[in-house]
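User: These chains co-purify. Model them together.
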Amino acid sequence: MQVDTRYSDGTLVVRPTGDWTLDRSLPDIQAVVANAAPSSPVRAVAFDTSGLGTWDSSLLTFLYETVEYGQAHDLEVHTDTLPDSLARLVALSQAVPEEDTAQSAETPALLARLGEWGLRAYDEAVAFITFLGQALRSLVAILVGRGRMRWRTFGVALQSSTASALPIVTIISLLVGLIVAFLGAVVLRRFGAEYFVSYLVSYGMLRELGALMTAIIMTGRTGAAFAAELGSMKVGEEIDALETFGISPIDFLVTPRILAVVLALPMLTLYADVIGILGGMAVAVSMLDLTTTQFLTGLLEPVVLSDGLIGIFKAVVYGGIIGLAGCMRGMQTGDDASAVGQATTSAVVTGIILIVFANAVIDWAAAVLQI
Amino acid sequence: MPTDTDVPVLSAEDLVLAFGSFVVMRDLTFDIHPGEIFVIMGGSGSGKSTLLKHLIGLMKPSEGTVRVQGRDLWSLSEAERAAMLREMGVLYQEDALWSTMTLAENVALPLDEHTALSDDDIQRIVSLKLALVGLRGFEDFYPHEISGGMQKRAALARATALDPDVLFFDEPTSGLDPISARRLDDLILQLRDSLNTTIVVVSHDLESIFTIADRTLYLDIETKTMSALGPPEDLRRNPPNQRVYQFLTRSLDAEPH
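Assistant: Joint model of the two components:
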C-alpha cells in the first residue's frame, strides 16, 4: 500500500502499488503531491496501476480524493488511465447528487431562538386548550346521547389503569407511608409528640401524597402508554384512516381513555391512602411504642372528611391531566418511528409538570377557602 | 476483492424452511456462484424473506445445510460464523437505517466496530461510500430528512461499508417510484460489474428481475419447493409449470401450448 509518483511534461503520474486493504491507514493525496515536489507546475494527473495488487475501498477512497483534489486545483485528471472497473467506480462517485431535500441547517441567533421558543410555548398552550375543548365537547356529546361511547376501549383502558396498576401502587404508597412516619418519628420525638405521628401520616397521605404519588406513577405508566399507543397508530396512518371514514379520533380513541383514567385515579388514590396509613402504622407501632389503638385514635380525632375529599378531588383533576397529556402527545406524534419515543417522553414531562402545578393551585385555593 | 474460483459463494443443500412443525419450503438445493446476480422470487408468503434469513445466518435451518465458501455455516464456531457473516452485506426491506444517527454515522459504525482505522480514515471512506450511491454532501442528514429512494441508497452505502463479498437485497425496489427503482437496479449492476460482488436479491418486481438477474430461483407456494432455476428469459420461454409462467408474464392466463 504505497504511492509512487513520476513527473513528466506537466503531468503527475500517480502510481499506487502493492495490496490496498482496509486494515492500514490511507495515504493522503495532498501529502503525495507535496512529496513529489514537481519542478514545474502540475497541469494534469494520470495513473499507472501496473504495480497494483489486490484492492478494496481504501484504494477507491484514495482515487476519489485524488479526483476531488484535481477538481479543486483545476487539474485535468485522466481517469481513462485507470482499469475499466476502477474508472467506472470513480465515475459513479462523481455523479451529481440530487439536492431535492437539501435544507439549510443554519442555527438562528440567540434572540431569534428565544422568540421561536416563545412562539412554540404559545402554540403548545393553544394546542392543549384546544384539545381539552375537543375532549370536553366529545364527552358532553356522549353524556347527552348524541355521541357514541366506545365501551371496549374504555374497558381495556380502565383495566390497565386500575387492576394492573395495583402492585406498583401498593409498593410505592406503602413505602411513602413508612417514609413519612420515619420523618415524623425523628422530628416529633424531639418535642415528645410521638403521638401525633398518626396525624402527620394520615393528613399527609389523604390530602397530598396519596393522590400525588399515584398520579406520578400513573403518568409514567398509563400516560406514557396512551402516548405510545396513539403515537404508533399515528405513524401507521391508522388515525388518518379513521378520519377518512368520518370517524372522529377524539370520540373513538381519546374520550374513552381519558374517562377511564379519570375514573381510575380516585379509586387508586383511596387505596393508596389506606396502604400508606398502614405503612405509617407499622413504623409507629414498631419504633415509637404506640399501640394500634393509640395510632387510630390519634388519626381519627383531628382528621376530617374534607381532608380525604380534597385528595379525591385532586385525583380526579390529575386523572384528567394524565389522560389529556398522554392522548394529546400521542395525537401530535410526527410520522417516523423515533417520534413515538419523543411523544412518550413529552407525555410524561407534560403530565408531571401540570400535576405539580395543579397541586399547588388546589392547595392555595384550599388555604384561601379554609377547607 | 473476491476472486474467481469454482467454489460456490453460497449453497443450499436439501434445505427445509420451517417454523416449528409448519414447513414453508423443503428440498431447496442450489449454488450461487461468484459475481452472479441471483434472484429469489415467488409469491407472497412463499418464504422468500425466510430463505434470505437462512442464507445470512439469522435463522438456523431445521434440516439441510447452508454453505458459505464451501463451509457449513452451522458447523462453525460462533466466532468463525461471525467472521463469515461480516463478508456479507444486507440491504433490508425497510432500510433499517439507524434513525438516531446521521447517514455518515450509519456508514461509519460497522467500520468503527470491525476495522482498526483511525476516525479520520473512516470519515474519508464514509465520504466515498456515500458518493458512490449519489449522496455526496448528505453526510450530516438524518434518515428521516431524505426521500425514500435516497434512504435505500444510504442503506446500500452502509451495506457495502466493509466491502462485502456478497450483498443481499430484500425487495430493494418495493415502495420506490419507477425512476428510483431503475436507478437502484443500475447501481446493483454497477457494483457487480466493477467490484465483482456476488449479489442475491429477493424480489417480485418483474421489471427489476429481467433487468438485473443472471439466474432466478422460483419458490412455489403450491408444491412447497423450488420449481424453477435458471435465467429469467429461459424460464419465460420454457416455463416448467403454469405458476412460473403466470408469475413471469404477470398474467392469469393458462400457458399457451
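The two ends of chain A are 85 Å apart (CA to CA).
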